[in-house]
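Why do we bother with a discrete structure alphabet at all? Because it lets us treat a fold like text: something you can write down, compare, and reason about line by line. To make this less abstract, here is a complete entry for Putative lipoprotein. Read it the way you would read a sentence in a foreign language you are learning: slowly, and without expecting to understand everything at once.
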Amino acid sequence: MRILLLALLGSLFSGPALAEVVLSGSASYPAKMTLPVDAVFEVQLQDVSLADAPAKVIARSTQISPGKSPLAFSLRFDNKPLNPKHSYALHARVSVDGKLVLITDTRYTVKADGSDAAQNLELVKVSEADVKATPLQDSYWRLVQLNGEQVISAKLPNEPHLLLSSAGRRASGSTGCNRILAGYALVGSGIHFTGLGSSRMACPDGAAIEQAFLDALLKTKRWKLEANQLSLLDAQRKLLMVFRAGTPPKP
């Protein structure tokens, strides 16, 4: 009887077994680049549900002197606390002497149940311009993500971009097909566009992206700026578009 009682008490206080998930993958960096022996490679699983708040780190993997590309990684975490209604993503970085040299600039989404296949991440070089914060206004912002999907400019007639001019608070840019013009108002982290208009050139290959771009601008109510990345959000703080600072393409 005593043994049975102890077994029952043990089951009550031990709780259910943790559902550990192992998420593996690799990260590639430019072929002509060699990492020094003191390089540090880190991969994080983040909760990115709130686009205007710091991401919450769920799991982390760190390697010193990771070696040649591709860099293999493995993350172990308990998926019990993960919320199916939240958004999760992988973020990777490489630093040398505390200085950031490589990062992922694309969102790699992860399912809350951890059922994803192996993830293959791409690391890009970080320039001095990337480290310094880019001003919101009077900067060239190229569109890299729209409604959660990566935007590939090479497939469009023009590079989709946005320019917020501080003179007269006028917005201009391109949907990837047509030129756009609008007014905008800034109040703290709030922003909204007014009088949105565009040229009317026919672009069958870019029609879907163009309409989604225009719709997203009309829904935009908030902005978030991190170094060289600009995020536009709706009234419920849902991420609509992501831009990266750049330079206008040569004619």
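What the structure line is telling us, in plain words: Residues 62 and 76 are 12 Å apart (CA to CA). The radius of gyration is 22 Å.
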